[in-house]
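TICKET #2291
ISSUE: user wants both folds in one file
ATTACHMENT 1:
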Amino acid sequence: MQGKTTRVIQEPANHCEFVKGRCDFQIAGKPARAEFITPVATEESVTVAFTLPSHISLQSVWIEGENMYMGQIPVLVENESENSWSGWFMLGSCSEPVMRWKMLVNIKGRTEPALLYFTTS
């Protein structure tokens, strides 16, 4: 009898859940933050600010629906200073009463994105 092979799916190290519009996480063991500057609402422009460790740069930021496919929504980010970035996005409305979203924060030189989660209702 042959043994079964089990595939283990591990949770990414860099992930967090937005609480009161703020999400604290780590990049390369150093603190980072994402914060909604405007309330998150569907079909409205939402602004988000990122504070990253020194010498760390954003490559791109995307948002995807977790409990319903909504495509990839780009977050249009600009560098404000050495460790500050600001971006905006718009979410489409959907039929789910509570929608769970995943923000993928891609960092230059790193293979795995930071995963930041939030909900809309």
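ATTACHMENT 2:
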Amino acid sequence: MTEGRIDPRYGDASATAPAWDDIARLLTDAQLYWIVTVRADGRPHAVPLVGVWHDGAFAFCTGADEQKQRNLDADLHVAVTTGNTGAGGWDAGRDVVVEGTAVRVTDPDDLQELADAWFEKYGDDWHFAVRGDEFVELSHSGGGTEGGARVYRVAADKAIAFGGDHGQTTYRF
């Protein structure tokens, strides 16, 4: 089990750190995430995307010609964020940043398991089939796509939770 450490510079050291299971549930239930990749020249690139928190890691997909993919070709380090502070303010919400290294998923069985997880979470809005070593979109908002999508998993090296009565809590893996 992963234990969080409250940073006393940014939170109440006497508070109880959120249980990792609560943070993992937030990551699982989120509908939208933001991913930050690094361009070849070192500039950050941030975009919203859908994904799944599955078996303790974040999974996402990207087309071969997308900026994310070009960035991953140069640097596999990423940060993924999600949360709900905007809706309820600092005291009511909780936001999470997961830092890690993206690893391409190419095994057909692993890809099928992730495609099933996407379908279970998003239904027909994001319905994928496995073709070779990538996803092919069966439906998205009423349409499909000809090209495939490469799938990546990001296991957390570090996660930081913000908000609530704890302030800032760091989890290391």
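RESOLUTION: both attachments delivered.
EXTRA DETAIL ON ATTACHMENT 2: Residues 5-106+150-172 form a domain with the Pnp Oxidase; Chain A fold (CATH 2.30.110.10).
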